[in-house]
Amino acid sequence: MSGTSSSAARPSTTSTFSSLRIPNYRRYFTGQGISLVGTWMQMTAQAWLVLTLTHSPTALGLVTALQTLPVLLLGPYGGVIADRSDKLRLMTVLQAIMGVQALLLGLLTVFHVVRFWEICVLAVFLGVNNAFENSPRQSFIREMVGVDQLRNAITLNSVTVNAARAVGPGIGGLLIAGVGVGICFLLNAASFVAVVASLLLMDRGQLRPSPPAPRAKGQLREGLRYAMQTRQIIVPLGMMGLVGLLAYEFQVSLPVLAQRTFHGGSEVYGFMTASMGVGAAVGGLITARLARTGIRSMVLASLGFGVTILLTAYAPNLWVVYVAMLFAGWASVSFISIGNSTIQLAARPEMRGRVISLWQVAFQGTTPIGGPLVGWIIAVSDPRTGLAVGGVACLVAALGAVLYVRPGRSTPTAPPGSTPPTAPTVEQPPVQQPG
């Protein structure tokens, strides 16, 4: 795979926190960090609330599916909108709407009137918002930092997500046990103030915006064809599709593993998720410094992710689970950040939103199928088996990528004008806008 990977490619500086020297990204990073802690608190609280109301892992999978089904159905259109729009303005509006959703769920829960169908409706509401917010948020990173710092910024962004995963579920578990589920939703609603403020304070003169794509017929099909014909895009998308389908269903498998296998409460589930977050945060900093991209690096991360999930699934006690999930977190953030960086560096600027939308469909949009499927597997067998299926999926994805790019195999040729990851295009410096 040496001819198909840019694993050795490095940015001009390999400082672990080099992208944070850019003021706009520093503002964005801070706002996202605060908001994501609230997001992980809400995810923990929502999973526990559904399990408490229904006592059904299938219902838990259904809510997860409803929240991610809009990403599957509408995500590609979200990418088209992102390529046509002012990404900063679009993100600001959509982030504010997400805060409203958290507030509504919190008020229903605090006043003890929440019903399962209401959780389902609000999950769909959030999913529609995510379908249109994911693409501009992901592609906006390049507009803040440029090509040279893209790998580092994407990895640090993943570190932020997983550092929040380490803090948010732990706090959420303690709050659930101490003051109730509803407070987690209300605190998440308040956390969106930080991220909206960070976006409003952006210095537009320092951004590197991509020219908006003109409105035209067939732009969605054009994006799909482009991705299918570019190996450095289609291989990561295929790997993420399989891994996202079965491995990233922790919100379904871990609560049941904590409750039924280890006979624990919400705090055990919180510590499981937090352990994975700590591993992702620490391992992500190492990944940020290495700044590796390409298919080879993604294959190695997928292998590591699969092995650590299997170790977690068949761990004899909670201490082994916590240790295994530390390494699963590291492999997880490496897999995501390497794949995201690889496809962004391979995509032409006017295609970036559509390519990122396909990445989000592969990552989150597969959950409407994978969530209920893993829930069903757990229902007919046990939580360990449901978790192990995800580990096997990671190993199969790695093997499939190796076979796809093996020497002598005929592979698609990138369309004219695409940007290979090893030689990114040089972007113009930001244009200072008048006063």
UniProtKB/TrEMBL annotation:
All copies of domain Major facilitator superfamily (MFS) profile, residue ranges: 189-435
**PROSITE patterns named in the record:** MFS
Spell out the GO cellular component terms annotated for this protein, sorted alphabetically and separated by semicolons: plasma membrane
The listed locations are:
Cell membrane
GO MF annotations for this entry?
transmembrane transporter activity
From the UniProt entry, list the residue stretches annotated as the region Disordered. 410-435
Give me the segments passing through the membrane: 34-53, 59-82, 103-128, 174-202, 223-248, 268-286, 298-315, 321-343, 355-379, 385-405
- Provide an example Pfam family for this protein: MFS_3
Q: Which UniProt keywords apply?
A: Cell membrane, Membrane, Transmembrane, Transmembrane helix, Transport
Membrane-protein topology: Multi-pass membrane protein
Q: Where is the composition biased (Pro residues)?
A: 413-423
Q: Which InterPro entries match?
A: MFS_dom (IPR020846), MFS_trans_sf (IPR036259), TM_effector (IPR010290)
Protein name per its UniProtKB record: MFS transporter
Q: Which organism is it from?
A: Actinospica acidithermotolerans
